[in-house]
From TrEMBL:
Organism, scientific name: Wenxinia saemankumensis
EC code(s) of this entry: 2.3.1.30
Lineage: Bacteria, Pseudomonadati, Pseudomonadota, Alphaproteobacteria, Rhodobacterales
Keywords for the protein's UniProt record, in alphabetical order: Acyltransferase, Amino-acid biosynthesis, Repeat, Transferase
UniProt keyword Acyltransferase present: yes
Protein's UniProt name: Serine acetyltransferase
């Protein structure tokens, strides 16, 4: 068994750590054994466990967990980048969320992580031309997690959505890599315009709770959007914006705001 753990750790250190944490969790709380075995230890790979967890959370009388699991397994087999992004998201949550103490937690309990992985499945379906099934997943993600992400939106990897309630990401929105956002963030349009109408969020951006970013605007890399702000115009890289409507109130304050998660506007003028 020890030799098997060494091999797995070398091949997939994220999955190896999840399994070890799962075994420890059962020792600490035996009543969780059924859930943890079903969700983690019964599966041969991270991809299979992720498919099972997504299916179990999104299943309903309208579509069974078995069908959803088969769809997710198909997607992960056809597009390995889905699980690669999921691993990056999981590590991002662990590194940035002080309430996350184990790799096991996002997979089992955190709806922000679960919702973004379900979105990734819906986006794959959308790109494959399976639009009705993608819309169905969007509906179930909204119903199950309180997060509405259009399956045509493009979202990078290393994403951390903290608390994750009432997130809205529109159809033509683009979110880069290593972005962090808190609850009640909207990446929306400004009316009934069509075509490319949603924000473009570059790498390393931190979006505070309740912020609204509206229209086909660009938020430059490694910038910060203060909680409650309404952003209607482009933001240059490495800046902090705050207010309604938002304006630049200073520099970002660090090289990677989305990683440091520092949301305080210390030393900046009142707005």
């Amino acid at each position: 068994m020890a030799h098997a753990h060494v091999q797995l750790a070398e091949i997939d250190p994220v999955w190896d750590r999840i399994r070890r944490e799962a075994e420890r969790a059962i020792l600490d709380e035996p009543q969780m054994g059924g859930l943890i075995h079903d969700s983690v230890l019964h599966h041969a790979s991270f991809e299979r466990a992720l498919a099972y967890r997504i299916a179990s959370k999104l299943s309903s009388e309208e579509m069974s967990a078995q069908i959803l699991r088969e769809i997710a397994d198909e997607a992960h087999e056809a597009e390995p980048a889905l699980a690669e992004a999921a691993r990056a998201d999981l590590v991002a949550v662990y590194e940035r969320d002080p309430a996350c103490h184990r790799f096991l937690q996002p997979l089992l309990y955190f709806k922000g992580f679960q919702a973004i992985q379900a979105y990734r499945l819906g986006h794959w379906l959308w790109m494959e031309g399976r639009r009705d099934l993608a819309y169905f997943l969007q509906m179930r993600i909204s119903e199950s997690f309180g997060i509405d992400i259009h399956p045509n939106a493009r979202i990078g990897k290393g994403i951390m959505i903290d608390h994750a309630h009432s997130i809205v990401i529109g159809e033509t929105a683009v979110v880069g890599d290593n972005v962090s956002m808190l609850h009640s963030v909207t990446l929306g349009g400004t009316g009934k315009e069509t075509e490319d109408r949603h924000p473009k969020i570059e790498d390393g951006v931190l979006i505070g709770a309740g912020a609204k970013v509206l229209g086909n605007i660009r938020i430059g890399h490694c910038s910060r959007i203060a909680a409650g702000s309404v952003v209607l115009h482009d933001v240059a890289p490495c800046k902090t914006v705050a207010g309604v409507p938002a304006r630049v109130v200073g520099e970002a304050g660090c090289a990677q705001p989305s990683v440091s998660m520092d949301q305080l506007l210390q030393g900046m003028p009142e707005v």
